């Protein structure tokens, strides 16, 4: 392992100016490793000319520089065009550590382990819904518990939680809440190997027992969209997407189960780091060696949380099908999984780094895996096309479906963006302006909106977002190509 200690004088990054950047190509900008002595790797920002100045103004860039100070990193730190500030590492980064001599940092994966997106396509035309999107929104709210403290109807024993954490979406298949095709069209088949529920705390297991099949709060949502425009018809056919048809999108993660796991191990890592001579660049970026017992335990627990999230999205997809059955005359079985993708996860992968093929530990926080055509690990229906990349817009905004390219393997370690992008976190925004009724804004746009139980109407500050600009950057940087644009019709949020 590299020496991990950092002098206290380097923990606060210097102010980044555009003149400090090296422009690599039209969509790639680099903060050189020499910008700050403690940086282990350069930082590469993926952004168009229109986006770069806006991104440099964000607190997230300072956080990215600090993240680049983690011991054992190789290659370069990737900053996605949808980056914004987070806890420790920003949301929208990829950090690669050499296996097994590097380090692992829970803060570079995130608290909501395996927050992700499930997209369901259909052959149901918009006309078949007969304009009943208020009814669909009402039914989603009535049928799916949501909100930060939401509890599900299927209260599990702690032993059953362990089964979910071991089996992922396969658990839902055994419970008749999934189809085999749901698993075939999910990242990793909806289950990570080597999950270890024995390394999960009692507090996390207690939360997991009550929250399976719930949406959660914050920015998590279930949306009904129309396929507005198709850009790649051959890919759209494989995905089951056609202009003028309905799709459903589920955006959620591992709920309190995963958050507690992250909190537990960040505390444990804080205690262990001094024994490995590691001083974190930020308390929320504490790390330990990949070959340590603490890292092994965290990876086992993190995979358990990932499997819980896969199962949770599968159960929610089942509930959406039930809603379509009730309101649209048995149409639920016409909803077929397009893909399920994680965007807060750590995985062991093979990558080319500085001309060498090596095993790496890839931290993705607010970034989706995007393996190019032919890459092992892609679900079989998409092996020849490339891995689907699902890009949800901010709640009630347009979303995109894309396909990963071969270039992504070299440029971003097989990764792409995870969402719309914004100028700041919602927490920051809500402290800088008067809140407004977001539900009312969306209703005025013709989107049927319902808030989660006990949450009331959503309010906050609608921060500047640029979903189309982010997608154009990802396409221009050749990380992924456009397949379809989706327009929202109904949304149920936490």
Describe this structure in words.
It is a single chain. By secondary structure, this protein is an alpha+beta fold. The protein has one domain: tRNA-splicing ligase RtcB, CATH 3.90.1860. It contains 14 helices and 21 strands. The strands form 5 sheets. Strands 7, 8, 9, 11, 15, 16, 19 and 21 form an 8-stranded mixed β-sheet that branches. Strands 1-2-3-4-5-13-12 form a 7-stranded mixed β-sheet, with helices on both faces. The longest helix is centred in the middle third of the chain and has 35 residues. The chain is globular, with a radius of gyration of 21 Å. The N terminus is likely disordered.
How confident overall, as mean pLDDT? 91
Query: What structural category characterises the helix and strand content?
Result: alpha+beta
What percent of residues adopt helix (DSSP H or I)? 25-40%
* Main beta-sheet strand count, sense and barrel state: 8 strands, mixed
Give the CA-CA distance, first to last residue.
42 Å
Number of helices: 14
Strand fraction: 15-25%
Shape: globular
What's the CATH class label? Alpha Beta
Tell me the name of the CATH homologous superfamily: tRNA-splicing ligase RtcB
Total beta-strand segments: 21
CATH topology: tRNA-splicing ligase RtcB
Q: What is the name of the CATH architecture?
A: Alpha-Beta Complex
Radius of gyration: 21 Å
Number of domains: 1
Residue runs with pLDDT of under 50 for 5 or more positions: 1-10, 423-435, 455-464
Q: What does the secondary structure layout of this molecule look like, with pairings?
A:
Layout: E1 22-25, E2 28-31, E3 43-46, H1 49-56, H2 59-67, E4 77-84, E5 91-98, E6 103-104, E7 116-121, H3 133-143, H4 158-167, H5 169-174, H6 180-184, H7 202-211, E8 221-230, H8 233-239, E9 246-252, H9 255-272, E10 288-289, H10 293-327, E11 336-342, E12 344-353, E13 356-365, E14 368-369, E15 388-391, E16 399-404, H11 407-411, E17 415-416, H12 426-430, E18 436-437, H13 438-444, E19 448-451, E20 459-460, H14 467-476, E21 480-493
Parallel strand pairs: 3-4, 19-21
Antiparallel strand pairs: 1-2, 2-3, 4-5, 5-13, 6-10, 7-9, 7-11, 8-9, 8-21, 12-13, 14-17, 15-16, 16-21, 18-20
Helix pairs in contact: 3-10, 4-7, 4-10, 7-9, 9-10
